[in-house]
Amino acid sequence: MSLVNKSIYAILGILSIQPSTGYDIKRYSDKVLSGFWNENFGHIYPTLKKMIESGLIENVPGEVEDRKIKYAITEKGKGELKKWLSEEIQTPAVRSELMLKLLFGNDMSKEATIDMLSKQKDIHEENLIKYLTMQQELTCEGSQITAKRSVYYNAILRKGIINSAANIEWCEETIESLKKLKG
Amino acid sequence: MSLVNKSIYAILGILSIQPSTGYDIKRYSDKVLSGFWNENFGHIYPTLKKMIESGLIENVPGEVEDRKIKYAITEKGKGELKKWLSEEIQTPAVRSELMLKLLFGNDMSKEATIDMLSKQKDIHEENLIKYLTMQQELTCEGSQITAKRSVYYNAILRKGIINSAANIEWCEETIESLKKLKG
DNA sequence: GGTTTCATGTAACATGTTACATGATTCT
DNA sequence: AGAATCATGTAACATGTTACATGAAACC
Residues 105..144 of A with a Cβ closer than 8 Å to B: which? Predict the structure, then answer.
């Protein structure tokens, strides 16, 4: 079992912002990275252990208070993060269940297909609102994010907004084209 | 090892169009499903075996000529396909390396970030052309796709087109916003 | 006092990719 | 004749999720 790759960079990145516990990392990916990156405990804790072993992170001394275990990025970890950042991004393999179902939509009733697309549209509309809200939170209060980072974070939110809008548009036009179909 | 789920529905769907060999299935996902769904041999062949065992597909009699093994969907398989089509789509977990790198873009030079985004833009531009070409091929010659299915297939291509365009737009605006940044 | 959230962790499972092995056929 | 494509398959690896177990602290 490797249980490493990909997650280690997310963890290194989060720890480069500030020292955190495993729980903090999970919370960060659920809230800040919501919709772009996900982590789960079954991955986080074993990965943290391996990263300690390889010297990419370390326990924060004096902070091992109650039952929390706080980690910080080391110089070696910072180097590893920078190295990864400069590497080419490999395009991920896509497996869209929606597209698959639509392609075999012949075997589905028109109504069921429209219903499926409506549900997708609802999801994207919810997401759009979520990203717009996050964007407002970013611009209003200074929050914990530094000004420089906020430019990057705003770009990420814009990506969510643009993609959600595109998906909504597509759902609508596809529903319309199906309604025009006879049978 | 299960080596089943998800792939079985792609296979059932493809076989519902016409009987095919494992190789045909791979080719179909590379060409027709390109960008929406991917399959690999390490998955296809073991899955086909399991599907034979569970009676979802069968060998096409008399067609086991040379070294090709052709499979066809059974009535049970058709039922399974329809059942899956009516099930709710679960939203897939997202892990976007690009977004992760952008979020930690603080640790990257501005130029490197812009370069990264340019490369992404190029990829999406290539994809856009690919989808537009596929759309033209669909409308010009009748190809092998039936008229009814072509409506669904066109919707899929439209999805690729709209998404590619949205991504290009986002790359451009993000590059611009970074260029305006000092430092 | 009970529920929710915080907090850490493991084991089993699910899923998917890559590398390798083999050999026929077709194209140049 | 040699290279590319067709064709099938396995084993090892890589990766990721879910369910379970445990218990403290905070909230209501």
Answer: 105-108, 112, 116, 119-120, 123
The closest CB to that of B94, out of A36, A108, A178, belongs to: A36
pTM over 0.85: yes
Burial, A167: exposed, middle or buried (Cβ in 10 Å; 0-12, 13-18, 19+)? buried
- Shortest CA distance to A116 belongs to which of B5, B64, B155? B155
Start-end of H helices in chain B: 7-17, 22-31, 41-53, 75-86, 97-103, 110-140, 147-180
**Beta carbons of A152 and B177 less than 8 Å apart:** no
Give B157's pLDDT tier (boundaries 50, 70, 90).
very high
Q: Which residue in A126, A125, A119 sits closest to A97, CA to CA?
A: A119
Residue from A7, A82, A91, A106 whose CB has the most chain B CBs within 10 Å, to mutate: A106
Across A8-17, average pLDDT: 95
pLDDT confidence band for B1 (50 / 70 / 90): very low
For range A71-87, the mean pLDDT? 94
Q: B179: nearest CA in chain A? A: A151
Of A85, A154, A158, the CB nearest to B104: A85
| Integer Cα distance of B35 and B158 in angstroms | 12
Please state, in angstroms and rounded to a whole number, the distance separating the CA atoms of residues A33 and B97: 11
- For A167, the token pair is 């998906």
Contact A108 B85 (CB under 8 A): yes
Average pLDDT value for residue range A133-162: 84
Q: Which class is domain B7-86? A: mainly alpha
Domain ranges of chain A: 7-86, 97-180
